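quick one, 168 residues, struct below
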Amino acid sequence: LWLNFMTDGLPALALGMEPAEKDVMKRPPRAPNEHVLSGEWGRLIFAGLWAYAVAFAFYVWELSKGVSVEEARTATLTLAIFIELGMAFTTRSRRPIWEIGFFTNKWLVGAAANPLALHILLVFTKFGKIIHFVPLTLAEWLETAGIALVGFFIFECLKLIPERRRRS
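---
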């Protein structure tokens, strides 16, 4: 529930505030029988499987290091939040983020920062104990953010594959 609360509501609303791309009116319309996600299914399935596999492997790896179940869960949930928020940024456009700009949707930046700040606050306060969170070290925060960032760049680079096919 915490993952859904952190990553679904505000980022979804903020994606609705995404500025129109400059060439949107120059693109040909989609065929009436074409699905909205046409051409995206493979990427979406890969993203879901990647996120699940990475989070599961990370959880098992954390436990194998001898950390407590609570610490492994807190770190894995933090990783999942980072991955989900990164996915919100990477699904903004079929173009790579370096073309559209990371900060062009200020609503999304705020919608990602607020839940992340709330998660950090919960992890480091007594309220987190209610759902068995434990404080993470700086190294664990950097580790989870780094793993999610790798996934973010993989998904951004995957956007280049269809572009090359269309150009040739």
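The two ends are 45 Å apart (CA to CA).
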